[in-house]
Amino acid sequence: MDNLLRHNLRNDLNVVLGQADLIADEVPDVSEHTAIIRRVGEQLLQSAEKEREIIDLLTEQQGRQRIDLREAVHESVETVRERHPDATVEVTAPEPAAVYGRPELRLAVIELLENAILHSDDSDPTVQLHLRETETHVELTVEDDGTAIPRIEADVLTGDHDMTNVYHSSGLGFWLIYWAVELSNGHVAAHYDEDSGNRITVSLPRAEEA
Description:
EC 2.7.13.3; 210 residues; transferase; globular; 2 domains; His_kinase_dom; Heat Shock Protein 90
C-alpha cells in the first residue's frame, strides 16, 4: 500500500509539474506563479522520497554493519558538491574511522550537509565537516555559520522531542538523521553560537567498541 501511494503521488506530481511548464511556455506573464507551483511540487517529491527512505530504514531488518565512516563521508561530500556546486564543503578526516552502523548513515551525512547549505543566507555557503576518534566513539561534526536551527527541529535530531509537538516539525530530513543514528546505537548533539553558528555532532561507537 505504501509503495502504491508513493507511486501514485509521484506520477500525479509529475503531471502537475509538466502542466506548470506548459502554462509557463504558453503564458509567459504567469511564469512567476508557475515557478511557485514547480517549487512546491518538487519539494513534495523530495518529501515523498525521504518518507520512503525512512520507512525502509525502520522496516528493513538489515542490522548494523562495519562502515569506514571516513570513506562514507567522502562519498557523501562528493554527492553534495555535485548537487550544490556553489557551496564549499571543507572536510577534516585524517584517519580511517570504522563504526558499526546502518548503511543509511551515508544518507544522514548528506542530509546534515544539505540542511546547512540550503538554510544558509549566503549564495555560496561554506560548511565544515570534522571527523575524529575518541577512545570509544567516532565523532562527526558539521558546522555552519547560518541562523539557529529551530528548537523543535533540533529536538528531533537529539531525541528530545515531545510527541505532542513533533507534528510541527517542518521536514523529514532530520527524522532520517535521527533514526539512522539511533539504529546505529549513536546519538546527536546540537549547539548554536551567535558568533560561530550551528554545530551538530553525531557520536557513533567505534567498531571494536560496538
